[in-house]
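Input record, target 12 of the design panel.
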């Protein structure tokens, strides 16, 4: 698959230009590189984002659901034992706070977006929802929202992931969704996304495509960010209440980039808050088996947007690798590419082994069984704190998005981690 044609679904590819489309750019990144047939639907969605989603009525209804159904606001937890383990003398890490998205209904931040987009689809009169999923977390969140709103749900999932993530396939089916295994390409997330886009091209009048991350063509990166920013908005209020000041850094893992951009949006305007995204380095960035798109990728077009991608010299999209299925994606949302190039955010990476070690450490020290995705930023907290404290000449407060819980990863964890028989 050529990067530049990745989303054409066999039709002419149009890079939308002109005033309206410029709205869909973050610097030179983003845009709307899609089949002609989707342009009207994306324009409808862009208008709906401004005229419905960002309006007080919608916000009230959505936030009421987040409170009564998802369990928001999620708590802010101070992780004292972990902070001491990382920095026993307190020389560089003053305090560590976790924004607990792992306590959301269905176990991760993805439900914030799924409920928002499904509520919007209902208001637009759509009668069918489709979604792509990798690990199955976004599929489960979308299937959940569709059950709540009484809408039929079709989830595209690579065959490889269907096999690897059997419990989530079962969950989606129990929730009434149809799971369609995708046999093309590497039979993983990027192929599922291609297939969902193909379905959308055919059924665009009746169907809403609920994209699960802050990626894809305009307006998805902006739409998803404006829903997930609930994470950063809440966290900002909570940490100010708790400590009386802003954190020195906000930190999150980056797959497509939705939990990270959700957290960052709460602090983008606060220049004193450093922003750190942590990608998956898999077997190591130099091994070629990784998903560190911002660390080691190049600029290209994937799934309708210009951003950093993992591709070879011919522009062919390469396979990503990560132990965590939610970070195993060869692209990244365009706003992160812009934040990287402008230097507003810093992107680093953690390997599979570092993430596994962090899962054990966080479980034993904090009683939190974290998702493998979330283990990546946990693994880098010491490095980040030391670097930042060095720059600022004092111990720093860190705020990290605890994006999800690890129940879904239990099989991998039991296979890969040596389990002690007690203390
Ligand atoms: C899906 C997922 C991610 C990665 O997705 P983003 O869009 O980058 O946030 C991270 N953490 C968890 C727990 C996930 O389920």
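The sequence produced for target 12 reads:
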């Amino acid at each position: 698959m050529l990067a530049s044609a990745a989303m054409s679904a066999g039709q002419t590819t149009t890079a939308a230009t002109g005033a309206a489309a410029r709205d869909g750019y973050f610097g030179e990144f983003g845009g709307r590189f899609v089949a002609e047939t989707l342009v009207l639907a994306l324009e409808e969605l862009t208008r709906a984002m401004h005229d419905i989603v960002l309006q007080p009525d919608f916000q009230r209804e959505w936030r009421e659901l987040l409170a009564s159904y998802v369990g928001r606001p999620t708590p802010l937890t101070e992780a004292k034992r972990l902070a001491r383990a990382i920095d026993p003398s307190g020389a560089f890490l003053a305090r560590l706070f976790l924004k607990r998205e792992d306590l959301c209904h269905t176990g991760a931040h993805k439900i914030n977006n799924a409920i928002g987009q499904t509520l919007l689809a209902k208001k637009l009169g759509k009668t069918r929802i489709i979604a792509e999923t990798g690990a199955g977390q976004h599929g489960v969140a979308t299937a959940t929202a569709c059950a709540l709103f009484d809408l039929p749900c079709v989830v595209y999932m690579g065959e490889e992931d269907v096999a690897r993530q059997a419990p989530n396939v079962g969950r989606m089916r129990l929730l009434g969704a149809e799971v369609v295994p995708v046999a093309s390409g590497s039979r993983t997330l990027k192929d599922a996304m291609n297939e969902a886009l193909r379905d959308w091209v055919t059924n665009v009048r009746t169907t809403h495509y609920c994209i699960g991350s802050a990626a894809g063509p305009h307006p998805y990166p902006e739409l998803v960010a404006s829903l997930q920013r609930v994470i950063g908005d809440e966290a900002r209020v909570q940490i100010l209440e708790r400590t009386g000041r802003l954190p020195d850094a906000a930190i999150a893992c980056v797959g497509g980039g939705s939990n990270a951009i959700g957290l960052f949006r709460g602090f983008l305007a606060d220049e004193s808050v450093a922003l750190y995204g942590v990608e998956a380095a898999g077997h190591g960035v130099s091994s070629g088996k990784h998903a560190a798109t911002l660390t080691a990728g190049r600029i290209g077009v994937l799934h309708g947007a210009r951003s950093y991608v993992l591709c070879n010299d011919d522009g062919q999209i390469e396979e990503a690798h990560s132990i965590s299925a939610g970070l195993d994606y060869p692209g990244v949302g365009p706003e992160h590419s812009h934040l990287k190039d402008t230097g507003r955010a810093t992107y680093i990476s953690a390997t599979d082994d570092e993430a596994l070690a962090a899962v054990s450490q966080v479980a034993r020290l904090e009683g939190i069984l974290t998702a493998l995705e979330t283990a990546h930023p946990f693994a880098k907290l010491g490095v980040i704190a030391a670097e930042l404290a060095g720059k600022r000449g004092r111990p720093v407060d860190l705020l990290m998005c605890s994006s999800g819980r690890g129940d879904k990863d239990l099989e991998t964890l039991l296979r890969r981690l040596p389990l002690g028989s007690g203390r």
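Residues 48 and 124 are 8 Å apart (CA to CA).
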